[in-house]
Amino acid sequence: MTLRSFGTTPRQRAEFGPADLVILIAILALIYGGVRLALSAPRVIVGPAINLAPEALPYYTLLSVGRLIAAYVISVVFSLGYGYAAARSKMAEQGLLPLLDVLQSVPILSFLPVLLLSFSVILPEAIAVELASIFLIVTSMVWNLAFSAYQSFSTIPRDLGEVAESFRFNPWLRFRMVELPFAMRALIWNSLLSWAGGWFFLMAAETFALGQRDFRLPGLGSYLQAAAQAGDSQAVAWGLVALIVTVVLLDQILWRPALAFAERYRIETVEAEEIIHSWLYDLLSRSWLVEQFLTRIWQPVGEVFDRALWRLWPWRAAGEPRERPLGGWRLLVLVLIIVALGYGVYRAFLFLAQLPLTEWLRIGAAVGATASRVAIAIGLGTLWALPAGVVMGTNRRVAFVALPIVQVIASIPATALFPVFVVALIRQAGGLNIAAILLMLLGTQWYVLFNVIAGAASIPQDLFFIAEMLGLSPRLRWMTLYLPALQPYLITGLITASGGAWNASIIAEYVVVAGQKYEVLGVGALIAESAATGDYVLLFAATLAMVVVVVAINRLLWRRLYLRAAERYRVEAL
After folding, report:
1. Alpha-carbon distance 295 to 293, whole Å?
2. Is the distance from CB of 114 to CB of 35 less than 8 angstroms?
3. Over the Cα atoms of the chain, what is R_g?
4. Are 488 and 455 contacting, i.e. CB atoms less than 8 angstroms apart?
5. Can you tell me the distance from the alpha carbon of 215 to that of 206, in angstroms, rounded to the nearest whole number?
6. How many Å apart are CA 545 and CA 524, to the nearest integer?
7. Residue 4 φ then ψ, to 5°
8. What is the mean pLDDT of residues 326-349?
9. Most buried by CB count within 10 Å: which residue of 106, 169, 294, 572?
10. pLDDT at residue 2 above 50?
11. Of 180, 151, 177, nearest to 165 (Cα)?
């Protein structure tokens, strides 16, 4: 197997098109609808008291882990379906990929107050806050997984597709036996990153307050936030210990067995010299009870399910025409959607017309300031994450020691320690700017690192043997092997890191410590300030400006780079 080049022409042009415009209009109408609904929310909401005694930590930890698990399951199911649809259908790809770009560009921390207030109008308060917190965690997990799934499904080696066609696999069998196994390793590696991102936003999900409306939830994030606000260093230490113990336990009982399981799906002609091991996975693989469950329950049920789907979704030869649904219903639905979007956009423009020109100019300057911080944070993160990711992805011994440490560090919510950085740096020249960049860096560098690790670990072992046999110097290995093979993974990480950095700006550019407000010029600060003061017109305008800018960057820069990398460099059989 080798890395083949298929020329420089991408599969499709990555330009701003009608699909992007329609999606932006839909997002505009949706946010406006949420803002109007939020105006009817209760004026006062009282949150629960947080018990800072160490005895409360096990219960709070279980609540937080439960929210993370629920968000992760939703994210995986959504990502697999979304990535599969975008990779398998050119028509779907033209709409789903721009939609994914827009959705991962929406700063959910700015939309969170609107979402919470809207839910509190139509749902009981307890359910509304729980659903909103899980939704926020989903948005911190799902985009990375969705991009990874699409990247894997769209770069499957052609010989595997030909094997599936020769065996006449229907779409379900092709997905279960070819496409999902091929995507499994990248999906699990990106799950580590998504889980770390979930921890990062857990505190915001559990501790949100808006004026006299307290939406706090009992959990590990709210415990750490309450301990930091109270200045209780002992409680902060207990909370960090509970977080670290939880991360280490999850690594041993969940992620390390998952990584060992993913080694089964390495695609290469030469067996790897070192593979990831897990004591729990080895124990379960030798268990008689597990073997009986797999052979007597899991496999028979799976076969029945496969046969049922075969009857509902039979095999069709490639290129065979499919029956199309009735055009009249599709036209009626399209007309109704256009009318609804048109009305929503009209009302949204009337709402935005209340904002004076001076405020729009302030938003423009704020967007430029935030963009510069995002660029610095991503650049600094890539400088160390790229070489570190290659080392951990290609050296199993280093990965065995370093990965648990990286997972622990990545999972510690920087938002809990950010007030400490602000206090330490506020009196220095440019101190708050440095603190803001530091928080963006802490929240986004892991996207690059884990994607690079997944890409480096996916390089076939025989390519390393060929490089060794040719006596390539380290520089030539980087230029001819590592960088070409890592391009799709690296760009995927940069896309999600960019969106995460813009989102983190809402926390990084506006912070309250001991009742004192600190802020710098930036669109994140505008969003946070307008949310705190209830200025929904400014909140709407600043959020819309951030969405438009991030979408433009994704479509004009990152998307073009990704299409070129996915087309030019992929693993293929000779």
Report:
1. 6
2. yes
3. 24
4. yes
5. 8
6. 11
7. -105, 150
8. 71
9. 106
10. no
11. 177
Kindly report each contact of residues 233-237 with a partner whose C-beta sits within 8 Å and lies 24 or more positions away, as own/partner. 235/52, 235/54, 236/416
Q: Is the pLDDT of residue 377 over 60?
A: yes
Task: Report the chain's terminal Cα–Cα distance, integer Å.
Answer: 6
Q: And the tokens for 549?
A: 């800018």
- For residue 124, with 0-12 CB atoms within 10 Å meaning exposed, 13-18 middle and 19 or more buried, which class applies? exposed
Q: Torsion angle of alpha carbons 244, 246, 252, 257, nearest 10°?
A: -120
d(C-alpha 139, C-alpha 146), whole Å: 11
Residue with tokens 């790229």: 386
CB count within 10 Å of CB 464 equals 17
Do strands 209-210 and 213-214 pair parallel, antiparallel, or not at all (unpaired)?
antiparallel
Residue 250 identity: L
Measured from the Cβ of residue 460, the count of other Cβ atoms closer than 10 Å reads: 19
| DSSP-based three-state secondary structure for 516 | strand
> Phi then psi for 458, rounded to 5 degrees?
-90, -5
Residues in the chain: 574
Could you tell me which residues are beta bridge partners of residue 511? Answer: 518
Residues 172, 305: Cα–Cα separation, whole Å: 10
Distance CA 73, CA 306 (A): 22
Identify the DSSP state of 50. P
- Tokens at 387, concatenated: 């070489």
Q: Can you give 415-460 as a three-state secondary structure string?
A: HHHHHHHHHHHCCCCCHHHHHHHHHHHHHHHHHHHHHHHHHHHCCC
**Helix %, strand %, coil % for the chain, to 5?**
80, 5, 20
DSSP state of 143: H
**321, pLDDT greater than 60:** no
Q: For residue 123, give every residue at least 6 positions away whose Cβ sits within 8 Å of its Cβ, in sequence order, or none.
A: 131
Residue 368 CB contacts under 8 Å (≥ 6 apart), including other chains: none
Please name which of 372, 387, 501 lies closest in space to residue 445, comparing C-alpha atoms.
501
In 3D space, the residue among 485, 497, 404 whose CA is nearest the CA of residue 446 turns out to be 497
**CA pair distance 393, 406, nearest whole angstrom:** 13
Mean pLDDT of the chain, nearest integer:
77
Q: Tell me which residue of 243, 199, 219 sits closest to 48, measured CA to CA.
A: 219
SS3 category, 330: helix
Q: Is 211 left (phi over 0), alpha (psi -120 to 50) or beta?
A: left
Task: Give the tokens for residue 159.
Answer: 């010989």
> CATH topology for 2-277+356-572?
MetI-like fold (1.10.3720)
Let me know: does 228 contact 416? Beta carbons within 8 Å. yes
- Please state, in angstroms and rounded to a whole number, the distance separating the CA atoms of residues 241 and 517: 29
Lookup: tokens for 157: 């080696």
Taking phi first (over 0 means left), then psi (-120 to 50 degrees means alpha), and beta for anything else, what does residue 534 get? left
Element spanning 213, H or E:
strand 213-214
pLDDT band at residue 47, thresholds of 50, 70 and 90? low
The CA distance from 120 to 334, in Å, is 31
Q: Any idea which residue has 């380290």 for tokens?
A: 474
Token digits of residue 279: 């004591």
Q: How confident is the model over 474-502, as a mean pLDDT?
A: 82
